[in-house]
Amino acid sequence: MTIEFIRHFYRATDPGKPLFAQDPEDQKLYIDFSEVRGGQIIEELKDNISFFSPDSPTCSLFTGHIGCGKSTELLRLKLELEQEGFHLVYFESSEDLEMADVDIGEVLLAIARQVSQSLQDISLVEPRRLKEFLAGALEVLNSEVTGIKLKIPGLKLLGDSLGDVGMTSDKDKFSLYFGIGEITTRTKSDARLRERLNRYLGPQKNQLVDAINQELLEPAIASLKAIGKNGLVVIVDNLDRLDSRPKDWGRPQPEYLFVDQGDCLNRLNCHVVYTMPLGLKFSKEYGNLTQRFTDEPKVLPMVSVKHPDGAISERGMQQLRQMILVRAFPNLNESERLEKIPELFENAETLDRLCAISGGHVRDILSILNAWIRKNKQLPLLRETLEAVIRSRRNEMAMVISDSDWELLRQVRQRKKVSGIDGYEKLINSRLVFEYRQNQESWFDINPLLAEAKEMQD
């Protein structure tokens, strides 16, 4: 194999890059794991919108382990809903929000900013109340922000000491997207400004939701339907990365946002899909969460590499092999790719070792493979090099595991269960334990990287 081919294979295994369903080249790399993940989860999300409630607002929650492939699946959901005539707004909330400190007002502004940006070519009603919110926010921030002037057409709430917030370079043209962006960009990196903004928006959250509905979402849907679209869908990704640290009054951020403020998230008059921290599934507040939202959160589990009784999942292993091989040979069919295994790996057993040790975690299998290519630097990839990468990963994970946590891991291996928020924080959030689904039931097992640790040997 040429150096250029090795470089291509290395770039194609980048663990941090989701697959964009609208990119023809990325489409070639997509593997449908629904059969070995316990169900058609994305199909259920799509049906909830396009089949059962196309003309009524819906709100869905989607969760799973960090790195299990949620973004790739949501981007496929985006494509499929666009093909059914919906206007889609997909964005990564971490671009707008400081995930260590998030408030409901900021989330609502981020949604309004992204929706208004996507609809810049559509004429909407004058957003007077939303302009007033921006003007009020700037007034509150003014004691900390200097050197800007405020000029929001139709409003004379402030003097000339603030600046042209919301004004684009297009000669006195106001842009809701641009105006919100100027405020959120300033507050994201400054905790003091963020606190001031949230103190202003928090008591008015219901009025802000009403303004977004009446001046942005409802007119947008009417305009979209007038040009033949079926409606508006907003997908808010990366909220599952919300930091679990407590707010100033002691409430963990995920519980504050999705439980305490769930009614606001649920009141937007369009279809919305939010990613949610997996830890909420294990929280004592989970019952209250499900009262705020019509449907229970959809969970994207690991790809099954084995069954609860320890038997190998042949179909899961087949799918993982193809996920790896297609990164090198995207233009070949499945059987042709299998014939190419000797060109990439020392033997087929070496490829299976990679698939099994990943535990079906999509990002982990790519991360191990990526490091393996970097360490080997030539093809075929050797089993000896893979084992060196595995030992290194195992040592890194094992260093931070306490004796009591090793005991918890032994219990999970035996019982296939995890319970409580402590179990989540110690075992699942740190990727020591993975969740699988079979016959509509969840079961858990330890990360295979740790199964071979000396602490786990009987």
Instruction: Classify the secondary structure makeup into a structural class.
Output: alpha/beta
Q: What distance separates the N and C termini?
A: 43 Å
The description of the largest β-sheet is: 5 strands, parallel
Helix content range of the residues, please?
40-55%
Low-confidence stretches: 145-150, 155-171
Please list the strands of the largest sheet in the order they lie side by side. Answer: 2-3-4-1-5
Radius of gyration: 24 Å
- Count the helices. How many? 21
- Series of H and E elements: HHHEHEHHHHHEHHEHEHHHHHHHHEEH
> Percent of residues in beta strands?
5-15%
Roughly what is the average pLDDT, rounded to an integer?
90
Shape: globular
Tally the beta strands.
Answer: 7
Could you outline the blueprint of secondary structure elements for this entry?
Layout: H1 3-12, H2 24-29, H3 41-52, E1 59-64, H4 70-83, E2 86-92, H5 104-118, H6 128-141, H7 176-188, H8 191-201, H9 205-226, E3 231-237, H10 253-260, H11 262-266, E4 271-275, H12 286-292, E5 298-300, H13 314-328, H14 334-339, H15 341-344, H16 348-357, H17 362-376, H18 383-398, H19 403-415, H20 420-428, E6 433-438, E7 441-446, H21 448-451
Parallel strand pairs: 1-4, 1-5, 2-3, 3-4
Antiparallel strand pairs: 6-7
Helix pairs in contact: 1-17, 3-4, 5-7, 5-9, 6-7, 6-8, 6-9, 7-8, 17-18
